[in-house]
Structure formats: C-alpha cells, structure tokens
C-alpha cells in the first residue's frame, strides 16, 4: 500500500514522502517500542512486560556495578576436541563464525565484578553463541568460575540462557556436568552462596547440573526452562502441552525455583539476597529487654483450644509480615511440590537475618493446616541453608497435624517428618520455636525441638485434640474434661518444663489486635535469640540434646521403685475409699423421700 500511495503521489505531481525507518515493535503484543524507557534500558516491553533476549555482556552490564566487570579465562578454548564434521559444515567453522558474530570466544562469559560494592564472580551463558550450549571450553570456564569464587571467598552469580549440551563434542561435552558439579561442591563446602538466574531459554545439562545445585534460583518472567525441549516432551506424551508448560511460573508453582523476578528488579533482588546470606550483623546483649510478667489465661482448657483456632488469629505469614517489612521466601523442596502449609524464607526482624519456618494455617479454609511430606522436606531444606550460612532459625508452629492420607504416606511422610526433626536437633546455629496457635501431635514436635521454646498465652500444645480423645473413649461429652486432664495450655506446658516462656497476648487474644500481638512476639523472639546466641555451638548442641534426652525423664531405680509401690498403695486405698463412698451414697439414696419403697404420707 505504501508503494502504491507513492506512485499515486508521483503521478499527481506531489512530492514523495521521506522514507520512514521501520519502527521496532513488541514481539508479543505489537506495541510501539520507540521512546520506551523500559525497552531502552532493560529490553522489556512497557506494555505487556515481554522480556527480549540479551547477550551475555548485556546481562552482566545490567547486573553489576558500572565498569566493574573484568573478564577472566578468555583464552580457555577448545574449538574441535573430537574433530566432528558433517556434510553441511564442519563444526570448527561453526565455532569460528559464532566467535566472529558475537565477539565472544565461547558460550560462557566469566569474570569478576562488584554488586552494590560487594565483590562477586559472575558466569553467563550466551544463547547467541551456538545456543549457549556447553562444551569442553565452556565447562572449564564455568568450573574455574566456581573455583575462583571459593578461592576469593566471594559469592557466585550464574546467568543462564542455554540449550544444553553441545552434541558436536560428543561424550566429552556430557562430562562437563560432573566437571562443573565438583567445582560447585567446593564452593558449597566453603559456605559461600551460589545464586542462579534463569532466563529464556534454559534447558538440558545446565538445568540438570549447576542450576539446580544453587542455593537460590530466581527466574525471569515467562522464561522457558526445563530438562527436555518442549518438542521432545510433546512427542513423548503424544498430546498438546498446557500453555504454561516449561515456564518459570509453573516451576515456581511446583516449588522448583524460589522466585520469579522482572528484569528491572533483578539486580536489587540479588544484592538484597546476598546481604541477607552474608551479613556480619549479629544481635548483642544490648538488645535484650526485660520480659513482662505474664498473667496466664484463666479460661477453661477447652475454651483456650477454641481460641487457638479462632478464625481471626494471625497466621505465620501474617505474623512474619508484621514483625519485619522484608521477607525473601524460599519455595518448595526441589522435588516438584510446594506445600503451602509450610512458609519459609529470610527476614531480619532485629537487623540480623533469620531463617523463618512457619506452619501456615488459614482458619477460614476447611481442612487447612495439614502438612504433607513435601512440607517437611521444604522445612528441612530451609534448615540446611540456615546451617550453611550460619543463620538462626525461628519456627512458628500452628498446625492441625500431618495430613492423614494415603498420598502422604506413599510420599514418605514418616521419613520426611523424622528428617525434619533430627535436622533441627543437629543445627549448629541458635534455634527458637514459637507455638502461636494449635500445635498438634508429631507435626508440631518436628519443628519445636529448639534451644528455646516459646508459647503464646492462648496457644495449646497437644498430643491429641480433645474432641478426638473423647471419640477414642467413646464419650463425646467428655471433651471438656479431657482438655483439662491433657495439660495442653501454655501454663501447663510451662509448669511441665516443655516451654521456656509464655508470651502474653493483647486484649481478648492475638485475634483482637494482631499488630500488637506481632510486636510483643517480635520483642520476645529477639530477647531469646540473644540468649541462645551467647553460647558456643558445641555447648548449645550439648544443652539442646540433654534437654530433649531428659524430657519427662524416669526416676532412678530405687526412687522409681518406691514411687511405683506408693502409687499402687495409693490407688488401692483410693479404690477402697471410693467403693465405701459409693455404698454410703447408695444407702442415703434409698432412704431419701421418693427414692422407692413406701411412699411417705
């Protein structure tokens, strides 16, 4: 149409229009990108948020401080290790052409730089260089990047855009997976973080190798990622894939990555995460305040149980959100499931980063609060990250229990729960557990074997729910009596030595003023973390193990024998007196008016 219009203008004697350069349009929504700041700065569409591909150098420039990047290992190359060639084009020629086109000598660009002033090692795979595939030279560069970070004791950030293994280098290319994994293990042993940034696309050996060995995985929106190419998956399944297949959002939903972050926020998010993992800030005794005296609730035990389940009682996520403005979540257990009944992540309620693990319960959702095997494995993963980076752990306990379902059993519920509990018992860092609502059965214990155990005043800690106990005894009316006898209130647990401190609640309970409840709890947590942090790890572990080794401990042999005999005698005397009392009451009832026999006139 444009050419036709020009011809008509010329025939009419009108001047031709000046040629207009082609405008750059968004590949996803067709928006005009001219003058778009978002596109000019980040190559992101201002209209729909579509993320355009970037080269490795562009990604490094966006991530690091200006002019701080210094490339390393540029001379590490191996153009054709197995002399591979096809009828169309020799492999060597493809590599040389890629070098000329991209200005890179290999798909992996590695070097050092700074991120908000913190020294980091960075490694980026460039998809424009033979699909970002990993061969011998790229594998060696990646391995050296891990080793350099370990030697310099700095974190490593990897940025991936890759199609996987470079098949033209045969089995040697496949062996780059363990090659890089060995170097990555050395970095982990030094207690240094590896943050993986996944961009579109990331598949194959990088995904199955060092990406999934990272401490924290963050992806750009709608990035294609996974082990196999979508074409291969479709061929094997012989059906169309869902629209979100292989996307970063689907991976987040299944707990396979920790966050999806837009490119504009990526630099700030990585810097903040590194600050949390590598901070030198520690709580000191100057932060300790005097604990206020707790006036224990005088409500009957069953009413406290009901109060612990109140629909307005703040959940773990709500308490964390009110105690600290910053929370970086960890998602999933890396097995394809993310149990929402467990919330984990990093926060800094008093300046020192803390790993929070909360049993999340929504009281307005029927059946909410049951924890699956994936939930306990998610908690265990968070504990191991805390141990690696020497972070205290705070657990918030409010659960209906472990999910009693065949699916949970088949998924290894018992093993996951046991591993969670023993991992917490073995933690070298300070641990603190807070029972905030209803702590029910083994699901509560698995996250409560800490150095210090706190309990909100109206919370309960129970071996079994009173209603369930009443059903066991075939007496539904006895729930109130059994609640008293089970000793499940905060006052009972404090007297029995199960918890160390009872935290007061405002007004009629935490539900009446969640903001104040969170503020009171925050002060209590900081006070107890200071106390736990003053011990050496060796002494802390010894005291923790002794505590749980002797909980409800039996007596010595002689004393135990005497107590047992006294208990038997007391029981017999009580039985005798009880029977005598029953006989006496029976005689009195027979002589009462209207109790039978002659009717008095």
Q: How would you describe this structure to a colleague?
A:
The chain is 41% helix and 15% strand. It is an alpha/beta fold and 601 residues long. The protein folds into 2 domains: 54-277, 2-enoyl-CoA Hydratase, Chain A, domain 1 (Alpha-Beta Complex), CATH 3.90.226.10; 300-548, 2-enoyl-CoA Hydratase, Chain A, domain 1 (Alpha-Beta Complex), CATH 3.90.226.10. Strands 1, 2, 3, 4, 5, 6, 7 and 8 form an 8-stranded mixed sheet that branches. Strands 9, 10, 11, 13, 15, 16, 17 and 18 form an 8-stranded mixed sheet that branches. The protein has a two-stranded parallel sheet with strand order 12-14. Helix 14 (373-388) runs parallel beside helix 16. The model is unreliable at 1-20 and 595-601 (pLDDT under 50).
Give a quick rundown of the structure.
By secondary structure, the chain is of the alpha/beta class. 41% of the residues are buried.
